[in-house]
Amino acid sequence: MASLPRKHLFDLPEGVIYLDGNSLGPLPRGVAERLERCVHKEWGEMLIRGWNDAQWMDQPARVGNKIARLIGAPEGAVVIGDTLSIKVYQALASALEMRPDRKVVLSDNGNFPTDLYMAEGLLRSLGRGHELRTPPPEEVADAITEEVAVVMLTQVDYRTGRMHDFTAITQKAHAVGAVMIWDLAHSAGAVPVDMVANNAEFAVGCTYKYLNGGPGAPAFIYVRPDIAETVRPALSGWLGHEAPFAFDLGYRPGRAVERMRVGTPPVLQATALEEALSVWDGLTMAEVRARSIELSERFIREVETRCPDLTLLSPRDPMARGSQVSFGFSESYAAIQALIERGVIGDFRAPDAMRFGFTPLYIDEGDVVRAAEIIEDVMTNRLWDDPAYKARSRVT
Amino acid sequence: MASLPRKHLFDLPEGVIYLDGNSLGPLPRGVAERLERCVHKEWGEMLIRGWNDAQWMDQPARVGNKIARLIGAPEGAVVIGDTLSIKVYQALASALEMRPDRKVVLSDNGNFPTDLYMAEGLLRSLGRGHELRTPPPEEVADAITEEVAVVMLTQVDYRTGRMHDFTAITQKAHAVGAVMIWDLAHSAGAVPVDMVANNAEFAVGCTYKYLNGGPGAPAFIYVRPDIAETVRPALSGWLGHEAPFAFDLGYRPGRAVERMRVGTPPVLQATALEEALSVWDGLTMAEVRARSIELSERFIREVETRCPDLTLLSPRDPMARGSQVSFGFSESYAAIQALIERGVIGDFRAPDAMRFGFTPLYIDEGDVVRAAEIIEDVMTNRLWDDPAYKARSRVT
After folding, report:
1. Would A1 be classed as within a structural domain?
2. Which residues carry this modification: N6-(pyridoxal phosphate)lysine (chains A, B) (predicted)?
3. Residue numbers in A near B245 (CB within 8 A)
4. Nearest Cβ partner of A83 from B234, B246, B262?
5. Do A212 and A301 sit in the same domain of this protein?
6. Average confidence (pLDDT) over B216-238
7. What is the per-residue DSSP string for B65-134?
8. pLDDT tens digits for B315-325?
9. Are A48 and B395 within 8 A, CB to CB?
């Protein structure tokens, strides 16, 4: 029984081929109704009692468990909340405390900028002479030395889909005594991840991309269970306290990863996310990955055959590539505008990438071929060469 | 024309007198429909284009401006996002950088615990020998000395409603060269606040209490405009960057208070909040405050007359009290359970407070008298003396 695609589980607009689920996943069908129920029946009728009666208080751990399954983490090792930037900060601050005598944080210059910005802000605040090193991604492995306190990388490159060697890098980090943090922003729901096998101390990620949690959906954080009770939270908020409603004056960290909770959880966003995660029921990431590779390979073949002016920016080896494909073109910003106007939604990433995400939950082979035909039309007929497209403002 | 109450703007359950809007405000009538539109028409149909076409990207500043009006702040001085705990951390981290040679953070032992926890975590991370002092609230003014780097207080006490002298404390802080941070969690939408006149450097607050933004609604932060461009954010996320979509490797703080944005904004929560704030259209905080005092005074009079076993924990002078009234009673937890079961929703705060919030938007004199009658029934007939109430779990 083919369990993919599952288009019937999504509210996709007519006539759109959505290849931007790696930026914002589409609306899963049950979410609107679930959210309406949360608003009317929980907030509206239960009012303050919703914290108990609708189990809002446990939601961050409950939703965390649903994500845990998709990243190969055990129950009780993941919580949701805040934004990915905040979760990066929490992981890095705790990791640095585990290696007080080392002064180097190693990332790479392909990391998503906010990870680097948050690190920069933290290291500046600490004022202890830490150094943030950002070599090119292909030189990271060699840069893991005994000076390094923390290796902090995003597994899948946001522009090209290039994947780091997840296992080898963690092993190398541990071999030199460094702490490993993986950002799974473009991994969770896109490629199989096994946090237990990987053995990294921390992982973080977002849920509005391949997990379809909606705009501004909360982030997640994983802490390896054997260290979770010794990790010291820098952002020690009341909901990460052992007993939030005792209202003690002093902070005592909560149980395991729950100490990574900070403030009052975003119940509306978390409810949308919780419902959105049900589209994964009964699916394995291995199935998703196999279909994602088929779709991406077909897309590359079709586009390269039809559009000689486009250059593949993503790794050609599917095993070294996440669930997205990028092509380079000097006018890629305008070309993406032309495509969007013709129903193929991808996105632009500076300086010159046309980026397309493949999510086998709602994309099939027919969509891929049709998208390639439309890209061919835009390229062959120079439809991108329109001042209106070039002038369009670049917010996202 | 009496503009209060505005009960018709809220979906309040039949038979409930809601005196807990100081913890979670009730559902404003337009919110469900607005959120449904955001889910279907924006997320569902615009998909990634919502960031531009539905103006999600500007929402934190746009909603911030609506809050600015309610706290006497100018346009462009407030943004929303994250949780109050995170905003406290941001304000304190930036404030400490403004006074690098001083080592004392002064708060009080009546502050809401998460403010103290976040300060504790920050000071520990910094590891520079800072000290967090928490004298009793009535001793704070005298504790403001030239050692103090930052004075960080919550204006209205969460348990008793006691108010700090907003003007005098800021003046004293400035007189000794300290930076002032006010937490307006129980002030915004409850009492008139004039940040311009007050002249404090920072203010933070939450929006799910008197501002009725819904469970987990985002927090807000105000930075005084004349210093906003020099403040250095500790949580330097990409949406606080001068040009987030340039994807530069280095952080450059954004314009004014926008640098206090961190990660991707919670669009669903922010949309609920934005709509919820429309219940304030055409109202002044002076009107709200006047009615709130009338209601609270009537409540105290009624309860004290009817229930001699209850002790007023709140200040008797309405000018020294926010928009809530607390009574002490040895079995107040059970008594609150009995009240909730009879339709009067207040809440319990350790160790022995029965807490009632007054929000003239949807509470009127009739509600106050009826609530007092039900409290009298619970007290006179010892309805609190029920093992089921005493055993009920204490999540909130």
Report:
1. no
2. 209
3. 350, 394-396
4. B262
5. no
6. 97
7. HHHHHHTT--TTSEEEES-HHHHHHHHHHHHHHH-TT--EEE--TTS-HHHHHHHHHHHHHHTS--EEE-
8. 999 999 999 99
9. no
Residue found under tokens 């995170």: B86
Sheet holding A311-312, edge to edge: A311-312, A324-328, A353-357, A347-349
**Alpha-carbon torsion (A69, A73, A75, A79), positive or negative:** negative
Question: Does residue A344 lie within any of the structural domains?
Answer: yes
Asked whether residue A48 is domain-assigned, the answer is no
Out of A27, A57, A86, the one facing B263 most closely (by C-beta) is A86
pLDDT at A31: 98
Closest CA to B189 of B110, B291, B268: B291
CA angle A311, A316, A320 (to 5 degrees): 130
Instruction: Examine the domain organization and report whether A11 and A102 are in the same domain.
Output: no
Q: What's the ipTM?
A: 0.97
Tokens of A42: 């929980």
| B137 lies in the same domain as B237 | yes
Catalytic residue among A6, A159, A209, A291: A209
Render pLDDT for B137-188 as a digit per residue (tens, 0 to 9).
Answer: 999 999 999 999 999 999 999 999 999 999 999 999 999 999 999 999 999 9
Residues A138 and A263 in one domain: yes
Please compute the mean of the pLDDT values over residues A204-208 and round it to a whole number. Answer: 98
Domain holding A225: CATH number?
3.40.640.10
Interface-testing mutation among A157, A236, A354, with chain B (most B C-beta atoms within 10 A): A236
Is residue B199 domain-shared with residue B252, that is, in the same domain?
yes
Q: Which of A280, A298, A330 is the last residue of a domain?
A: A280
The answer to whether A166 is annotated as binding is: no
* Cross-chain CB nearest to B236 (options A117, A232, A396): A117
Final residue of a domain: which of A280, A298, A323? A280
* Number of domains comprising chain B: 2
Distance from CA of A375 to the nearest CA of B (A): 19
Q: Which residues contact B369 (CB under 8 A, 6 or more apart)?
A: B298, B302
pLDDT per position as a tens digit, B24-58: 999 999 999 999 999 999 999 999 999 999 999 99
Regarding whether B378 and B296 lie in a shared domain, the answer is yes
Tokens of A145: 């030395």
Q: Band of the pLDDT at A1, cuts 50, 70, 90?
A: very low
Do A187 and A72 form a contact (C-beta atoms < 8 A)? no
Pairing of strands B78-81, B353-357: unpaired
CA distance A250 to chain B (A): 6
**Is residue A171 domain-resident?**
yes
Q: What is the pLDDT of residues B276-304, one digit of tens each?
A: 999 999 999 999 999 999 999 999 999 99
Does residue A167 share a domain with residue A63? yes
Q: Mean pLDDT throughout B366-380?
A: 98
Residue B294: which domain range? 7-27+284-391
**What are the angstrom distances between the C-alpha of A315 and each of A310, A320, A321, A325, B242?**
14, 6, 6, 8, 31
Residue with tokens 């609190």: B384
- Cβ(A356)–Cβ(A19) under 8 Å? yes
Task: Express each pLDDT in A293-352 by its tens digit.
Answer: 999 999 999 999 999 999 999 999 999 999 999 999 999 999 999 999 999 999 999 889
pLDDT bracket for residue A394 (50, 70, 90): low
